[in-house]
Amino acid sequence: MLSLLMNCLNMKFAKRQIQKYHDEPLSFKEDISLEDVAKERFPKTVLALSQLTVTGEVSYSPENDVLFNATVKGKITVPSSRSLLPVQLPLDLMINERYVEKEERLEHFEETEAAFLLENDMLDVDQSVLDNIMASLPLQILTDEEKQSDDLPAGKDWVVVSEDDFEKESSAEKDSEKLDPRLAKLDDFFKE
């Protein structure tokens, strides 16, 4: 394994470094800390972020694109989507991204492909890792107790209802709002 930026605060690779790896990719395994950056960029979402182990490769493709492939392992603490209590989630994700030098090249890729513009001739691994972590978070995050219970938060003059209960309530309201059949002819009268 080759590690170029072990002592740097930010894990970045310059394009000129990567260009040397046409035949064989630049491999690395680093432990990085992104907690401060994560809390600064996502203050309402990230409560804590463990040290992350990032293992991967960076290479230069025949099309002169930078290819970044990595796995990220660690833990993140985020608020429950129901009660805002802290919930720790394991992180184990794969990143497969392509970076192009010219913006026009982005048009050659499908929307589902991870292709980005290489900014300032640098691949910022920290930013890529953090963006991928945030994109991987589930929409509904619950504590273990919340997963086991059907109780939803409530307060003075408000209550949280599940989607199923909301749909049942909505359909019941629609049924009660149906027009009295004796008045149906009046409804047709106003259509003319």
Automatic annotation (TrEMBL):
<dbReference type="Pfam" id="PF02620">
    <property type="entry name" value="YceD"/>
</dbReference>
<protein>
    <recommendedName>
        <fullName>DUF177 domain-containing protein</fullName>
    </recommendedName>
</protein>
<dbReference type="InterPro" id="IPR003772">
    <property type="entry name" value="YceD"/>
</dbReference>
